[in-house]
Design brief:
Elements: H1 2-25, H2 34-43, E1 45-49, E2 54-56, E3 64-70, E4 73-76, E5 83-87, E6 92-93, E7 107-110, E8 114-120, H3 121-130, H4 132-173
Antiparallel strand pairs: 1-8, 2-7, 3-6, 3-8, 4-5, 4-7
Helix pairs in contact: 1-2, 3-4
């Protein structure tokens, strides 16, 4: 009987270790110590999705971010269905919703059966109330990530504007 309980708890321990390993590699949680990661782990919401199941839809109110533990998720724009990204193990999406509850800018769909962890705005706020130092660390890292993505988006928009200008000049010459 002891081996049965030992095996059950060993499996749970391995799952928890796997989740902590995934969290360590997420930029928002990178550099957090084991105790801090454990605090984060306690507020995460684990969910399994089947192939083609919608995780969230474009236009729905954002509530938080998602971390892919295993499987593949695609991010698509509506109504065109254009794929913006395919995300796998250890990648995350929807992080802006931790700071802002504005409508989602795309739809997230499970490409394969997958397990994701939800980290919602209320979880972050509660964590910050209980452990302000940890909350500030997470929000600061989140802000840096969003800032880098904004800079990259601005650079891409600038390059597209330049290309559009070149195309217009080419049309005017013809």
């Amino acid at each position: 009987m002891d081996s049965l309980w030992g095996n059950l708890f060993k499996g749970e321990k391995k799952k928890k270790e796997h989740i902590l390993t995934v969290l360590k590699d997420i930029p928002i949680f990178k550099g957090l110590n084991s105790r801090e990661l454990d605090c984060v782990d306690r507020v995460l919401h684990k969910r399994h999705y089947d192939t083609d199941e919608v995780i969230f839809s474009q236009g729905s109110m954002g509530a938080g971010m998602y971390i892919v533990v295993d499987g593949l998720v695609k991010i698509v724009t509506e109504p065109s269905g254009n794929t913006l990204a395919e995300l796998g193990d250890g990648e995350f999406f929807g992080e802006i919703a931790l700071l802002d509850e504005s409508p989602r800018s795309a739809t997230a769909i499970a490409l394969t059966p997958c397990t994701v962890l939800g980290f919602f705005q209320g979880d972050l706020f509660g964590l910050t109330e209980r452990n302000p130092r940890l909350g500030v660390k997470i929000v600061l890292k989140l802000s840096r990530i969003i800032g880098r993505r904004l800079i990259a988006a601005n650079d891409q928009a600038r390059m597209l504007q330049e290309e559009l200008g070149r195309l217009k000049v080419g049309e005017a010459v013809e």
